[in-house]
Design goal:
Layout (H helix, E strand, L loop, with lengths): L2 H13 L2 H7 L4 H15 L4 E4 L2 E4 L1 H25 L7 E8 H6 L1 H11 L3 E8 L1 H9 L5 E5 L7 E14 L12 E5 L6 H11 L5 E6 L2 H9 L5 E4 L10 E4 L9 E8 L7 H13 L1
Parallel strand pairs: 3-4, 3-5, 7-8
Antiparallel strand pairs: 1-2, 5-11, 6-9, 6-10, 6-11
Helix pairs in contact: 1-2, 1-4, 2-3
């Protein structure tokens, strides 16, 4: 089983579609099916079954997929190590970055880094922090930049800490919040637990959530049009918004804030481009 076979199993498992996997491999579906049949003959097992369009891996097939993923990871690490045995900084840096940081902070940082190391190629995955953290756990990225609290046992660096605000177009009395419509960011796992704790310190009833949106910018636009209030981190706010902001403070006086972390593995810093990028972040943030 060679590298292309490993990629084939990985893509089929992830895409759950033979045609899409074939496209990623620049193969025709019949060629991919033929190679699967050859693999089954090589190992003497059935790798998968098809029920209509649905693909189901057999236990033997799932074992092969896990083997393929490990083999691809080890091959990638070997290539990275070989590239970094010389003195020149080169290779591919794989980053996972929270959407907010990718939008508001990342571009100039990457530009400065590439100006210093023009032979480096950067591969960036953006998404909500939960998605970025999972990519890091699976070793699909070298460095993850996430917002919120995560149980990460390896190396980390606090990039920034920002306040979280109640945002409205008009002055509101906090005691009236249960009766005022809230525009809610539905992917708020970054800080929802602390917000819920703050809420139930004050109120015995749930918030009146009338809108669920997947973007803080949408939250802000709804607030601007007096459709309710929202709870928004500082990074998304500017004086030009002309909105009223109120700090969220626990009854013990502790302000609610949102932390942005850089996570990475200690072993990853043996790769020169990762070591240089981590140092670049530490010295520029």
């Amino acid at each position: 089983m060679n590298e292309k076979d490993c990629l084939m199993l990985k893509y089929i498992f992830e895409m759950q579609n033979l045609t899409k996997a074939a496209e990623l491999l620049y193969m025709t579906p019949p060629a991919l099916t033929y190679r699967l049949q050859q693999l089954e003959k090589e190992f003497g097992v059935q790798i998968m079954t098809k029920n209509g369009r649905r693909i189901e891996f057999t236990p033997e097939g799932r074992y092969l997929v896990q083997y393929a993923k490990r083999a691809l990871l080890e091959l990638r690490k070997t290539r990275e190590h070989m590239l970094n045995m010389g003195s020149e900084v080169q290779g591919t840096l794989r980053l996972g970055v929270s959407r907010a940081i990718a939008l508001y902070r990342l571009p100039p940082i990457l530009k400065n880094f590439l100006d210093l190391y023009p032979k480096v190629e950067i591969n960036v995955n953006t998404g909500i922090s939960d998605e970025v953290f999972e990519l890091l756990r699976e070793e699909d990225i070298h460095v993850g930049i996430v917002r919120g609290n995560y149980a990460w046992s390896e190396e980390k660096y606090l990039i920034r800490e920002e306040n979280v605000y109640i945002v409205s177009k008009d002055q509101i009395d906090l005691r009236d919040l249960p009766r005022i419509p809230r525009i809610n960011y539905k992917n708020s796992s970054d800080f929802s637990e602390e917000i819920n704790s703050w809420w139930y310190e004050r109120f015995n009833e749930p918030p009146r959530i009338t809108m669920q949106v997947d973007n803080f910018e949408i939250c802000k636009e709804m607030v601007k049009n007096r459709l309710g209030y929202a709870i928004i981190p500082e990074i998304f706010l500017s004086p030009e918004d002309q909105l009223l902001v109120t700090e969220m403070v626990h009854q013990n006086g502790q302000t609610i804030s949102l932390k942005t972390w850089m996570f990475y593995r200690e072993s990853s810093r043996q790769i020169t481009i990762v070591d240089r990028f981590v140092s670049h972040i530490v010295s520029h943030i």
